[in-house]
């Protein structure tokens, strides 16, 4: 997924010659998330988590091959289609987060989500190596090096699909029978939706804490989308190589995934809000560093902080939503959350390119900072109107 964020803007500029369209790649990722998140949740609520994950991986496989071809034939239309399909597949396969939430009671749920995210570290170790090999082969063969890394991804996608096949039983079945696996578990009263009432996404938004969780996740995702474009553009502008850009994005991804287990454990012990809101604040600081500084070290520190803040917000928000809905509604509930995040990503992509072209990096960075400020302001307003005890 980091290839799409890290190299997508450069691929767009390579194909179109316009920096104003740099946000197209992030926009396609956001649009794909918007299109697929709720429908795939509905499918997995009805048929189980594994079919949804397999379906997503099949789409991702088709998308990555299409992206590789698009760079060789220099087609922006094929690139756009390939990235949309790839994004739909990767976002659909994120039902693995819901599978993890299904398999653990609330006291362990955020930490379980952290374990899933930690698996992405393997990709971080291999990513710069893949890019280096692609660059060497591109220089040798005269092939565009931005298209070659996508040809390595089918190995990982097919391997992931095989692993998912061997999961027994389906995580949804575990979630519906948690007391069988955790005899001490006592099902909590549901505050939003519930097995006995018709599911309505808007019930989630009317619940105060869930509303803050959804907005926080959206703000962190939108902030990160803008910063991912900025990172590639800033480093490329200052003459850094594709390998240097890949390394910078690697540190961003380390922030996203390396600390998810302690963040999840902290959210389980101290509460979801205790981790979520500082996470959003961290994305604000990171966005400012990435946008308003120029050295590789400071930009990389900024993008690392954005990843770290996103991890805290995402793990906590996902766990909070999972806590408040029944297993048979969890796919749709978290899908609803992801749909809103996808819409925010589309907005971020639509404004990033024009802001970059017309007003430069400071205006784009300020937009990322303002996005992160929204949930913090909302929480402050809600706390100010609560009655004092």
SSE arrangement:
Elements: H1 2-16, H2 24-47, H3 49-73, H4 76-92, H5 95-102, H6 106-118, H7 121-141, H8 153-165, H9 171-176, H10 178-181, H11 201-206, H12 208-237, H13 242-257, H14 260-270, H15 272-292, H16 296-323, H17 327-358, H18 361-385
What does this structure look like?
With 389 residues, the chain is an all-alpha fold. It has one domain: MFS general substrate transporter like domains (Growth Hormone, Chain: A). Helix content is 81%, strand content 0%. It is globular and about 60 Å long.
- In the CATH hierarchy, the architecture is Up-down Bundle
The CATH class assignment is Mainly Alpha
Q: Quick one: CATH superfamily?
A: MFS general substrate transporter like domains
Treating each run of at least 4 consecutive H or I residues as one helix, how many helices?
A: 18
Helix content: over 70%
CATH topology, by name, is Growth Hormone, Chain: A
Give the structural class: mainly alpha
Low-confidence stretches: 191-196
Number of strands: 0
Q: How many domains?
A: 1
Could you tell me the mean pLDDT? 85
So what's the overall shape? globular
> Strand-and-helix sequence, N→C?
HHHHHHHHHHHHHHHHHH
- Strand content is under 5%
State the end-to-end distance.
Answer: 47 Å
Using only CA atoms, what is the Rg?
Answer: 20 Å
């Amino acid at each position: 997924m980091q290839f799409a964020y890290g190299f997508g803007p450069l691929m767009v500029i390579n194909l179109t010659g316009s920096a104003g369209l740099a946000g197209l790649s992030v926009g396609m990722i956001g649009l794909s998330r918007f299109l697929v998140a709720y429908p795939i949740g509905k499918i997995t609520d009805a048929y189980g988590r594994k079919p949804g994950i397999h379906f997503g991986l099949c789409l991702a496989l088709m998308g990555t091959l299409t992206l590789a071809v698009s760079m060789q034939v220099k087609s922006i239309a094929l690139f756009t289609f390939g990235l949309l399909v790839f994004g739909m597949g990767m976002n659909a396969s994120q039902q693995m987060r819901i599978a993890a939430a299904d398999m653990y009671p609330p006291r362990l749920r955020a930490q379980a989500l952290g374990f899933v995210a930690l698996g992405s570290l393997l990709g971080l170790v291999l990513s710069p190596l893949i890019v280096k090999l692609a660059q060497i082969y591109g220089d040798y063969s005269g092939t565009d090096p931005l298209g070659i890394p996508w040809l390595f991804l089918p190995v990982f996608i097919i391997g992931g699909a095989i692993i998912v096949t061997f999961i027994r039983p389906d995580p949804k079945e575990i979630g519906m029978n948690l007391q069988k696996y955790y005899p001490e578990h006592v099902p909590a009263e549901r505050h939003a939706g519930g097995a006995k009432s018709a599911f309505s996404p808007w019930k989630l938004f009317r619940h105060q804490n869930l509303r803050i969780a959804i907005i926080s996740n959206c703000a962190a995702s939108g902030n990160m989308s803008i910063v991912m474009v900025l990172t590639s553009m800033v480093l490329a502008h200052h003459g850094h190589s594709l390998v240097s850009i890949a390394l910078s994005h690697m540190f961003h991804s380390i922030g996203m995934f390396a600390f998810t287990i302690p963040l999840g454990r902290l959210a389980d012990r101290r509460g979801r809000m205790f981790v979520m809101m500082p996470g959003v604040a961290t994305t604000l600081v990171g966005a400012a560093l990435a946008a308003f500084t120029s050295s590789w070290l400071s930009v990389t520190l900024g993008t690392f902080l954005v990843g770290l803040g996103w991890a805290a917000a995402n793990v906590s928000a996902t766990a909070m939503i999972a806590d408040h809905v029944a297993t048979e509604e969890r796919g749709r509930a978290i899908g609803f959350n992801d749909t809103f995040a996808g819409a925010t990503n589309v907005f971020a992509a639509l404004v990033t390119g024009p802001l970059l072209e017309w007003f430069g990096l400071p205006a784009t960075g300020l937009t990322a900072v303002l996005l992160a400020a929204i949930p913090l302001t909302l929480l402050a307003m809600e706390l100010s109107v609560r009655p004092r005890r």
